[in-house]
Sequence to fold (191 residues):
Amino acid sequence: MNPITHGLIGWSTANLAPDLSRRDLAFVVAAALAPDLDGLGIVAELATRGSERPLLWWSEYHHTFGHNLTFAVALAAAAWLVTRKGAVAFLVFLNVHLHLLGDLVGARGPDGFQWPIPYLWPFSESPQLTVSWQWALNAWPNILISLLLLAHLFWLAWARGVSPLGLVSTRVDRAFIQALRNRFPSRRTSS
Fold:
């Protein structure tokens, strides 16, 4: 899945727990995106691709360092150490696994390559998780999932007064929510 969809999943999951602080929400949403930090190796790979000894950090390590149980446990433990909230640690752990699930079912490349997920890495290279029916990154199921999650984001903003904009700016968040509520007033407030 693409980063936008992973982020939308993270936001929806973060809103399962009531009364999380802005910092807690940020941890939970970041956990949905964090596994792809292992994809930053593409920078070194592109920078050295014409050299005598190119660094194949993306080709060899994407879907490795951040796509496993060890990473999920470490990230959840870090979240617990910082927040001291079991709910935050659990949602961080869950979001890493939802990221893995999304990549497992919806990240096939245009050449048909399926990124295997070494779930028990670094302790074992097995199992290499794949599914034979994995759909392409730009396939309609990913688009549909993204649209449904986007609708959920707008509903959360309208009904509960929370949006991911609040992670960046509370002023912009309030303006967005107010504009949404002005455009789609509830029946209770419009009568």
